[in-house]
């Protein structure tokens, strides 16, 4: 009898424990709508990490309203320009965000736009072939050099010239914010020998006599002018042209910027032009990532 009572008691205790355990709530019991609302307050990398917690988090992390909150104000303009209207109609907002974070080229591959993966802010690059360079068609003055050091795989190289002027023009829809324009330049011609990087600076001359003038103007009247000497032979240097502010969302703004050294009392040479970069002002400190 004692054994029978003991056995019954054990079964009952196990049953009670089982009921107690099954009544506990876990992460999987949180409504997906609540999870999605929480995820909206996180950065995209953190959203992607939490998507691996369980199926509920995975489904919640794919909600359109979560990713639409991370896309920039001009994402429809970007998506139409880069992906095509017929494609975005069948894509989720998460897929659009992921695609826009890739280096997307247009205008025959001479311009590139992408979103910063963490912030969703727009970064824009123009290759040397998209810039108007005085004398670029005359090989006595300029040549294009293929190189792995450029994201566009080639740079414009100045051999020697009296009048140096490089102009960039673009009309684009930027989200509201402050932006910086920068030229990526190098004095000297880099190459590889025996697997090591070397830079020939034999043709570098004339840049220490007079400074280069940088100018910026926009269609809404913003202007800036600055001057500086080119320096650091053998290294890629980012030269700040100026800043502009976008205050009207979803409206195109025309931007014109330039560098010039047009003092014809001396020749200049040995300059490599890689690209021009337009990015949020706070990104200027990490331009080497672009």
Automatic annotation (TrEMBL):
Tree of life domain: Eukaryota
Region (Disordered): 1-26
UniProt xrefs under InterPro entries: F-box-like_dom_sf, F-box_dom, PP2-like
Location of the F-box domain: 24-70
SMART domains hit by this protein: FBOX
One Pfam family cited in the UniProt record for this chain: F-box-like
Polar residues compositional bias, start-end: 1-10
Name by which UniProt lists this protein: F-box protein PP2-A13
Species this protein is from: Cicer arietinum (Chickpea)
